[in-house]
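Hi V.,

You were right to ask for the full record rather than a summary. Here it is.
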Amino acid sequence: MSTLYTIGHSTRTLDELVAALRAHGVTTLVDIRAFPMSRRMPHFNRESLENELPKRGIGYVWMKELGGHRKKILGDSPNTGLRNDSFRNYADYMLTPEFAEAIERLLSIAGETAGPSAPAANNGLPPVGMTIQEHSGPTLSPKSGEEDGETADPSTPAAKTGLPPVGMTIAGETGTSHCNTAYMCAERVYFQCHRMLVSDYLTAHGHTVLHIDDEKRAPRAHKLMAEAHLADGQLLYNAQQLF
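Predicted structure:
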């Protein structure tokens, strides 16, 4: 199983984004915005990131296949636990072979980045010296939004998902380089972004997802939404329905 990080670029400067990624050992950034551009912050345009991030030692990959803003594809959606149309459309898309293939590619990138001996692949644990924060996770369908990510800093508590106990610092050799992968969208607060659904999918399938806020705070472990459950390997948001 893999450990992946997430981040939202929001209204940061490029240097602030890089500082946050470096603080968590991220060396590959996977952009899952459907439209990798920002009118107000052109330094987050795809062309800029492709040019600037490698200069700072961070690889950049755009994965359009994981992008949001999905159209309605099912007349009778099984994801009735999501009241937001945009999120429900994306959850329906997550039932397609195209999404499954995109997730496999994301995990392959994370595996190639970590490598067989990199600390990031050490039993799915976060980097040495990092402290895990508790996180309760969202329980209601949040509003959707990806446009330029102007949101306040997250203040919700966080949770344990197969990680060491909350507050525990990971022991090990210091000074070891880390090679982690993070996927990025626009919203700083992950539960206002479709990367929450991507994180649900990965977590439900046994992977560890950690949400980055900045370079100073510990990452927050992802917790599955209350409405989500696996059925025959597919993630559905209808836990409140009677079967």
